[in-house]
Batch of 2 targets.
Target 1
Amino acid sequence: METSGGIQASLPGRYAMALFELARDAKTIDKVEASLALVRAALDQSVDFKTLTTSPLIARGAATRAVAAVAKKLKLDVTTSKFLGVLADNRRLAQLPAIIRAFRQLAANFRGETSAEVTSAHPLSDDQVAALKQSLRQRIGREVSVDLSVDPSLLGGLVVRIGSQMIDSSIKTRLNTLAHAMKG
């Protein structure tokens, strides 16, 4: 399988590739991707869950039990639930955001799509996401899957990363540019 961007070269990439191959063989790529989206949302919304995944003070067994409970509460598919258990056992939960990004890229490549990382100042509505996908599709010439995240420090606008390209229309960047220009 073609892995653009050297996904396999990184630790999160190797974990993502292993999960992707399991999902591909079981024909559950969409289910795993949906479960990972729930995990990503939980990481963004729950300080406790984020602490669980990043704190070195939480014992391995406690982390494994906690992740199993979270997986059950989120109603994750079996493959993703077991995968989270493996990450907890191997003390790799801190790599979860990067693993999710790499998995999404692998899944998008598998479907013939280009993946884009979109950071906005505020959560985007479904209509805004659809319009953004349409705009990116016209610009790139192929289907685009978007990985959405929110960064309030942008103040407004978007930052879109597609491969090595970056489109930054954030107010934060515009203000910084203006401040730099005014300094002379």
Note: The helical segments are 11-25, 29-45, 47-54, 60-74, 78-89, 96-110, 126-140, 171-183.
Target 2
Amino acid sequence: MENLLAARFRGYYPVIIDIETSGLNSQTDAILEIAAILPTMDEQGYLLSAETVHFHVAPFEGANLDPKALEFTGIDPFNPLRGAVDEREALTEIFKLVRKHQKNNQCNRSIIVAHNAAFDQGFINQAVLRCNLKRVPFHPFASFDTASMAGLTLGQTVLAKACRQANITYNNDEAHSALYDTQVTAELFFYMINKWKALGGWPLGE
């Protein structure tokens, strides 16, 4: 019997991700936080969260640290209380967990889900190149962008406004933390996918 989640996205396993960075340039700036939510699907075909992973990340050697970006996120990259790990360790652990859930859900490959996904995907791809990581579970350029999805389904593209439209609580004081933003983005993604099912849009033809 084919796994419901594998059947839903053509064999792709969606992983909701958010990162916080030291700037906007994926080639020169560092990932400072990364979080990922690994979903599952219940027997009725509705998405929900199965596992969450989160890392504070130490900037790679020579990384640009834009003061404006650090002020925006409130992150002090060198605060010892962060318990930061290097990007290789963070991505290796996340990829290992993604591959486990991908296999458990009978999926062939994973796909990044993020709000303005090209940004997060660009930074992850650059970190993969820097660390020369192999066995990357994610598609190298395809992604599910919740900003585009929300524009279609909710008439909003800004995360906070899309959440309000979907009656999802959004706390501006907690925003711009990778863990919080991932949790909110996952809730929004699940809402849109599950709403489409509830409205009769999936499975197609029923």
Note: Strands lie at 12-21, 31-41, 47-56, 109-114, 138-145.
